[in-house]
Amino acid sequence: MTNTNTNSVGTAPVVELREVTKRFSGVTAVQDLSLSLYAGQVHCLLGENGAGKSTVIKLLTGVERPTSGQVLIEGDEVAFNSPRDARDRGIATVYQEVATLPMMSVARNFVLGAEPTIGRWPFRRIDDRAAERAALAELEQLGIARVRDGRQLVGTLSGGERQALAIGRAVHFGARVLVLDEPTAALGVRESATVLRLIQAVRDRGAAVLFITHNAYHAHAAADHSTVLRGGRAIAQFDRGEKSIADVIELMAGGAELHALLTDSERNVVDDGAGTIGV
Ligand SMILES: Nc1ncnc2c1ncn2[C@@H]1O[C@H](COP(=O)(O)OP(=O)(O)OP(=O)(O)O)[C@@H](O)[C@H]1O
């Protein structure tokens, strides 16, 4: 297994889980898991349903505390008491069901909870133009050029654009660690490619990204490092290029069965790794 305490250039992780176990009344959801997230890198957490992925998110975001083991931020052990504690330390989570409000504009969604204001009390009001400028600038920087009007309702955006908005908002408000819960799960091929490119753009701006997925193709396209979880344990940890898509499918529970169902030509594509989505 790859050493998780330093990366190839020797920098310390921004966030680290060290031999973490989490039990829920008789069920061990996560066992002896060590995982490190580095600035400017995408760490992909792969696993089938029930592998323990959501529990890892909860441990990193202060929803749950480990039964044993440590959570460290920049080398300091932390004990989050709430998601707010984690957010205050720069850990932001974008959940699969993206937390955007469809009947509200792109700009208002972007600044939700931190609205810029204009004027003095009692005439203070939300500065919609400032919100619009911030939202469009961030989306443009992240390569989402299709959204040009901050007044557009979020309900009219595609799934990928909504993910982009939520990710852009997190980065804009200072997230150093971005936890993305299955951001491509409900998207088609083109939309997934948009989100995968976005993940790389966020990484290139220096964020540490934890990309949770059960899609080996998406992991292959975006990950610098990967951890495969099965039954709450890390059964493999590896760097980009060390494993093929076929290896990863094999590692995940059910992989062998799924592989056996493919036609010969489909299997060849997977085995060659040629099925990667181009990003
Ligand atoms: N609060 C809880 N109480 C009891 N068992 C739990 C609790 N939370 C999770 N578990 C169990 O821990 C295991 C891991 O669950 P977890 O939700 O972390 O998996 P997952 O990889 O996120 O799965 P999915 O992709 O289906 O959401 C499962 O067996 C689950 O039933």
From TrEMBL:
Keyword Nucleotide-binding: yes
Matches recorded under PROSITE patterns: ABC_TRANSPORTER_1, ABC_TRANSPORTER_2
Every ABC transporter domain range: 15-256
GO molecular function: ATP binding; ATP hydrolysis activity
Record keywords, A-Z: ATP-binding, Nucleotide-binding
Matches recorded under SUPFAM superfamilies: P-loop containing nucleoside triphosphate hydrolases
Superkingdom, natural source: Bacteria
Keyword Zinc-finger: no
Entry-linked Pfam families: ABC_tran
Transmembrane segments: none
InterPro entries named in the record: AAA+_ATPase, ABC_carbohydrate_import_ATPase, ABC_transporter-like_ATP-bd, ABC_transporter-like_CS, P-loop_NTPase
CDD domains associated with the record: ABC_Carb_Monos_I
Family annotation (PANTHER family): CARBOHYDRATE TRANSPORT ATP-BINDING PROTEIN MG119-RELATED, SUGAR ABC TRANSPORTER ATP-BINDING PROTEIN
Name of the protein in its database record: Monosaccharide ABC transporter ATP-binding protein (CUT2 family)
Native source species: Phycicoccus duodecadis
